[in-house]
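Hey, weird one. I pasted the SpoIIAA-like sequence into the form twice and got a warning about non-standard characters only the second time. First submission, copied straight from the form history:
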Amino acid sequence: MEYSERVKIIEHRGKEIFYFDFTFLRAEEHPWVMDVALQRALQSKQKEILYISNVSNTHLNTESRKKAKSIFTTLHNQGFKVKGSTMGITGLQKLIVSAIDRDMYFTNDIEKAKDWLVGDDKL
């Protein structure tokens, strides 16, 4: 499987949004997608990283959480501001993700996620 295909950039109202597709992956595959995502974010000319993670039909585990926290720390240490939305999340997963990013927006509607990300809210 080519994990780089699971990291895309979409445009919405003139802003770039990273789209991370974790659908139908095993939890142990998440770090590979996260590595691709981090490399693309670090290469970005933007200092504000907007992203949508789609975790429909997948599972999160402790390693996924640790890897995500590490990526957030790296981005913040490199001067990036990060704002994200997560789609397809269950109750337990919501608790895990909220522990990583308390400002996360949860929705199952990609248009709502894009609108929220490019809204007037400060990063």
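That's the output from the first submission. The warning seems to come from a hidden character in my clipboard, not from the data itself. The chain has four helices and five strands.
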